[in-house]
Amino acid sequence: VQLQASGGGLVQPGGSLRLSCAASGSIHRINFMGWYRQAPGKQRDLVAVLSHNGDANYPDSVKGRFTISSGNAKNTVYLQMNSLKPEDTAVYYCHADVNYGMEYWGKGTQVTVSS
Predict the structure, then answer these.
(1) pLDDT of residue 56
(2) Eight-class DSSP state of 25
(3) How far apart, in whole angstroms, are the C-alpha atoms of residue 32 and residue 54?
(4) What is the side-by-side strand order in the sheet with 17-24?
(5) What is the mean pLDDT of residues 62-85?
(6) Pick from 36, 29, 20: which is nearest to 72 by CA?
(7) Of the candidates 98, 96, 94, which has an alpha carbon nearest to the alpha carbon of residue 107?
(8) Phi, psi (deg, nearest 5) at residue 29
(9) Kind of pairing between the strands at 90-98 and 30-38
């Protein structure tokens, strides 16, 4: 199973970015798929997760600003990030829990929020 993430970049405070992540390989069921982020010197934290039944969860730090959704393409999720703040700057990692609980990570994509 591979996770291909894209969409990071540099944006000004208050701006928006959309990340995408596509899972491929021997996947029979995606249990959860979502995003984590890790800023320099900090632990990797959950940003958003989408369950197989469509439930989405967010930490308070991004609630109301970020939205995770599934894509028209199979096994794809998007993370729409609005009202970005400098503290959102981090490397964002796609994560998937598939089949019988196997976990996979994509390569990180840098998101920098700066004027």
Answers:
(1) 97
(2) S
(3) 9
(4) 2-6, 17-24, 76-81, 66-70
(5) 94
(6) 20
(7) 94
(8) -155, 135
(9) antiparallel
